[in-house]
Specification:
By secondary structure, the chain is of the alpha/beta class. The chain has 11 helices and 16 strands. The strands form 3 sheets. A 7-stranded mixed β-sheet has the order 6-5-4-3-2-1-16. A hairpin with a 3-residue loop joins β7 and β8. The longest helix has 12 residues. The structure holds zinc ion. Zinc ion binds next to loops.
Length: 309
């Protein structure tokens, strides 16, 4: 699985950074792509990637500020124009109001979609587990921004152990039904009386990945809870070291606060996004260096950058 950043800027687009959006690519796992936020121009960014809009099955919105949602009507409409491709339904998760925004935009512009959108709206009272499939569970918790805003914790379920077929063959088990039984965890006895203990041929289950993707926020305990032991934490860094006061005033975080969250949560990696256009490239490397004094495995992401998880 990979995260591809489609927009890593804060507030408004700049030449190098578009407004917020990222894609969690789960193609190997479930043949789907999940979008997190959809700022204006997200569909243009997607054109520069290998992502096929039809594969986008779910969109998670952190909050209703324009730089996080103005790309939705355009993306949703373009997704309909994929000739000869099967039209698949789409789920949108987000704060109360997202449904009205999307449906109003589509209605006023006379846009008709050949697929269904299923909305899952929530408010402060309906957070917690918001989605569960056989492979993934997604939790949301309120953060601390200037409007209602959430962070998401995406937990992949533990992966079953795999069968060591070569070892099983070497033990004299013929290819066929017995193989299947061992694969299903059943012990078997061969014709010559040899007992095959299934557990000896199946690797231990592997823990699923945990990905934490936060919306805009001041430093808050909710961020730490969402990021506990995460393989990757994506955290905003609208401001830099020393700007804690102004960050608080505007409902945002500094790189140092993001690093503190990663450290307190025991996250494995920290990716900083929502970078202000005020920062030139030398400032961006300083953002990383300063944050690394608190949490070493930190990286400031760029538009279109892809990170393997
Ligand atoms: Zn915002």
């Amino acid at each position: 699985m990979e995260i591809q950043f489609l927009g890593t800027g804060a507030g408004q687009p700049s030449k190098s950074r578009n407004v917020s959006s990222l894609a969690l690519k789960l193609l190997d796992e479930i043949n789907e792509v999940w979008l997190f936020d959809c700022g204006e121009g997200t569909q243009n960014r997607i054109l520069e990637t290998s992502i096929r809009p039809r594969k986008v099955s779910k969109i998670f919105i952190t909050h209703l500020h324009g730089d996080h949602i103005f790309g939705l009507p355009g993306f949703l409409s373009s997704r309909a124009f994929q000739a000869n491709e099967e039209q698949t339904d789409l789920e949108i998760y987000g704060p109360v109001g997202i449904k009205s925004f999307v449906l109003t935009s589509l209605r006023v512009s006379g846009s008709r979609l050949p697929y269904q959108i299923h909305f899952h709206e929530f408010d402060e009272g309906s957070l917690g587990k918001i989605m569960e499939t056989d492979k993934f569970t997604v939790y949301a918790e309120a953060l601390d921004h200037t409007i209602f805003c959430v962070g998401y914790r995406i937990m992949q379920k533990d992966l079953e152990g795999t069968l060591d077929a070569d070892k099983l063959k070497a033990a004299g088990v013929p290819f066929g039904p017995l193989f299947g039984q061992v694969k299903n965890g059943q012990d078997v006895t061969l014709e010559d009386g040899t007992k095959i203990i299934a557990a000896d041929y199946i690797s231990a289950p592997r823990p699923g990945k945990v990905i934490t993707i936060l919306g805009d926020t001041r430093k808050t305990n909710a961020s730490v809870r969402l990021a506990v032991n995460a393989d990757v934490l994506v955290h905003e860094s609208t401001y830099g070291k020393g700007d804690e006061k102004i960050a608080r005033k505007h409902g945002h975080s500094t790189n140092m606060q993001a690093a503190e969250v990663a450290r307190e949560a025991g996250a494995k990696r920290l990716l900083l996004n929502h970078i202000s256009a005020r920062f030139l490239s030398k400032d961006v490397s300083q953002l990383r260096k300063d944050a690394a004094t608190i949490f070493e495995k930190v990286h400031v992401v760029k538009d279109l950058e892809e990170v393997e998880i």
